[in-house]
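Ticket 4471: requesting a sanity check on a complex prediction with flavin-adenine dinucleotide. Repro inputs:
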Amino acid sequence: MPAWFDHLLFLILVVLFPVRAAYSGMRRLRRAAPAELPRVRLAVYREAMAIQWLLLAAMVAIWLATGRAFEAVGVAWRPSIGFGVMALIAAVAIGVTLHQRRRALADDQTLMDVRGKMQHLEVMLPHAPRELNTFYRLSVTAGICEEALYRGYVIWYLSAWMPQVAAAAAASVIFGFGHAYQGPRGVITTGVFGAVLAAVYLISGSLWIPIVLHALIDLHSGHLAFHAFRRGAELDRQRFEREAEGRDAVAPPAVESAPDPAPAAAGAPADAAHAAAAFVPEGGPAAAGPDYDVAIVGLGAMGGAAAYQLAARGVRVVGFDRWRPPHEHGSSHGETRLIREAYFEDPFYVPIVQRAYELWSALEAEAGAPLLRLTGGLMIGGADSALVQGAERSASVHALPYERLDAADVHARYRAFTPADHTVAIWEPRTGMLFPEACVRAHLNGAARRGAKLRFGEGVLAWHADGDGVEIETASGRVRAAKLILAAGAWMPALLGPAGLPLRISRQTLHWFEPASAPERFDPERCPAWIYEHAPGIYSYGFPRLNGMVKAAMHVPGETIAPDDPAREPTAEEAAALIGALGQYAPDAAGRRVKSAACMYANTPDMHFAIDRHPAHAQVIVMSACSGHGFKFASALGEAAADLAMERAPRFDLTPFRIGRFAAGEAGAPVR
Ligand SMILES: Cc1cc2nc3c(=O)[nH]c(=O)nc-3n(C[C@H](O)[C@H](O)[C@H](O)COP(=O)(O)OP(=O)(O)OC[C@H]3O[C@@H](n4cnc5c(N)ncnc54)[C@H](O)[C@@H]3O)c2cc1C
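Returned structure tokens:
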């Protein structure tokens, strides 16, 4: 009869094991940014292996301690069907699997079917050779441990109260629910699979064949998934390239025709409303009309994202930039940018940044280069500071995961920080760093691959809107387009003229330091990105150590400058002010200063963005999203600007970003 420790082990197998798999394993995988996924996947595989071996060890210990016969849990030295028959069954199973594998790998269609079937588990299946190797070990572990536990042990345990066949059926149901993290389909499939293995076990009187079959199925699935995802990505890439070549080779489509919806992997919205809307320019048919559907001035963070989105929808785009982004003249350089979800500035931004996360992930998958790394984030300040209160408000309005920590908690958890006792912090898991140069490059490469004409080193001198669209003038000549997106960052005032936006261009500096001591405390695994509020409107912020350096900066009103002002070298006084600020809560962050850079904010009076149609020319879209916090949104705002240019309703309500709010009486009004 089972003893109390058997009840405990049974309970762990029935409740704790599946709950842990769902909540710790799968949830972590789903929340991880793509750049983090390989690391998280390896960690999840290793944890699963450790737990399974631990549980098996517990069972073996119970058996040895109680002197029970191992035959009772299927480790039968004399199985009823004999070793010869068992070896034959195993050999046939291995042969069939190898044959299936060869056939699947030789045929793209079969592989794509496999990809489709495994899509819902994509996040947990291996994508890189190193992950595949670990997955193989996990498969063998699952074969041995899960069979011993869910077949041998659970059937033995339940047989104390019911006939063995009923116990085997119940064990299969438990095994199915143990895979609840795979969804209802996974529960049924694994339940049926478990029932087959249980039948084999009962007939053969031994676990050896179920172990071989189980390990074989898992090995086979991991192997096929790996090849299906790889081949799928390769075929997607080839399709994009063919489409881009096709667009160049054939005459441009008539502009009033509806462009194709964006290909799924482009990361563009594929919902029905977006796909069904048609692009109807004001200027009439192409033959008598513009050279392009949309022209974009400025190909930095915002313009590049808009170009990408438009090109992905089959729109004829031309983009101009004075330099070749990414470059160091504007607002989008400096190696890292914060992305955070519990947005202290206003809860209004949260759905936009959530969409931005999705689009950055899609872009990252396409670019094959890391664009985003999640580190978690600390927002530190007085309990009544705008930073702490605002972040907490956004987190609770949108039910985001977060924790409120006092100063001692912060130090206990993150040794790099020693904030003053009166401060508190909001910690949120989805804060991270974007790599801005790589992000800008990925958008521009993606746009060019889809046929956008990107004219670098060609500044726009003037633009004129008329009934037919817009004419853009550069040193090389004139170009006509039906629509124009102005995304010139700090140069917007020059492009918009005196009646434009009340933008103030301010100088900001960034500094990189070697930590003064205990550098490992600043590593991304141990140190989140952070913002610290010193006084209303005065913040310092920083990022974990990358390439041996901690990057930090002040977020302050800053000196007003002209964007082409050549005197941009950061000064020793600016670095000293930052070192003093860091000294208040992260004294080891700033050791030797390695380098510094200057950058520009384009600030609106209320520090919220201006994304709207030009007040006098509806075919011109103004895209000014800086005020020191715009980068993270670029992927989603590029999508919104593309919608405006195509006369589609953007996914988000953009009225908080309307230009009209700066008219007398409204300027400085809060977003909501
Ligand atoms: C120091 C600093 C730190 C920041 N930190 C963060 C952060 O942590 N998180 C965050 O989300 N945001 C942050 N931001 C804000 C963010 O970087 C900006 O919102 C974003 O980079 C703005 O992008 P943009 O496309 O408007 O400007 P840019 O990327 O500067 O692009 C404008 C482009 O227009 C081109 N151009 C200008 N005039 C013309 C013309 N006449 N013809 C052709 N081309 C022209 C320029 O060459 C340039 O390439 C920070 C900004 C700075 C400066």
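Notes from triage: The chain has a mean pLDDT of 86. Leaving this open until the requester confirms.
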